[in-house]
Amino acid sequence: MNRRGRESRAALLDAGRNAFSTKRYEEVSIAEIAAAAGAAVGSIGYHFGGKYELYLAVHEAVFEDFWGRLQELRGSAMQRLTQGFGIYLDFVQQHGTALIMTPRTGADERLLAQHERHRDRLVAALLTEIVSAGGSSAIRIAMDGWLAFVEGATARWLTEPDSDRVQLQSLVLAAGFATVQTTLTLDPSITLTSRTIAALLDLHGGQRTERTEKS
């Protein structure tokens, strides 16, 4: 593909991203996307195959941007977890639940497979961060379940008129560490990484300090 073709494709992706972030799929027309991109309507079919294929490409682009932001994080495990969840909330607020959260109903196999691939990638990244040895299916199931909790809690948080971002962050991180601790009880063969142990100590130390200050 020549430079002009690459620029046209990128412009269509950006226009699709803006459109699908603010409207439901059925409310967006290819003419609208093409006009926003300054391209011919037929260019969507040429570069992507059609409207739905562009929709899938937009999903993939959003996920790749999300991963790029996560991979730039530095600092302790607790700092990266906190910042990583902040990035997740930024993406959800910017793009809405449709482009970042797992679809619940009405999605075809291609979209579900795309979400599942990125979810598996995130579970694998979490396990690399958390587990240094052992790691039966229990910890994978636990992390997958925790991610479902994160999505559900975030979706509810978005609908609450008095939603508190810091409170949501504290809730999901505490739930994540509680999930890890429960899984350790069920499977003693799991050995945590030093990063995770430090994060657990950091979390519990912060909670004790907060309770002391309140008392």
Tally the helices: 9
Strand proportion, as a percent range, falls in under 5%
List SSEs in N-to-C order: HHHHHHEHHEH
What low-confidence regions span 5 or more consecutive residues with pLDDT below 50? 208-215
Rg from alpha-carbon coordinates: 20 Å
Shape type: elongated
Class from helix and strand fractions: mainly alpha
**Strand arrangement in the largest pleated sheet:** 1-2
Approximately how much helix is present in the residues?
A: over 70%
Mean pLDDT: 87
The biggest sheet amounts to: 2 strands, antiparallel
Per DSSP E runs of 2 or more residues, the count of β-strands stands at 2
Can you tell me about this structure?
The protein is mainly α and 215 residues long. The protein is built from 9 helices and 2 strands, in the order ααααααβααβα. The protein has helices spanning 3-22, 30-37, 42-47, 51-71, 77-100, 109-130, 137-159, 165-186, 194-214, and strands at 131-133, 191-192. A two-stranded antiparallel sheet has the order 1-2.
Considering the chains and any ligands shown, give keywords for the structure.
215 residues, mainly alpha, 9 helices, 2 strands
Précis, in short:
This protein is mostly helical.
List the helices and strands and how they pair.
Layout: H1 3-22, H2 30-37, H3 42-47, H4 51-71, H5 77-100, H6 109-130, E1 131-133, H7 137-159, H8 165-186, E2 191-192, H9 194-214
Antiparallel strand pairs: 1-2
Helix pairs in contact: 1-2, 1-4, 1-5, 4-5, 4-6, 6-7, 7-8
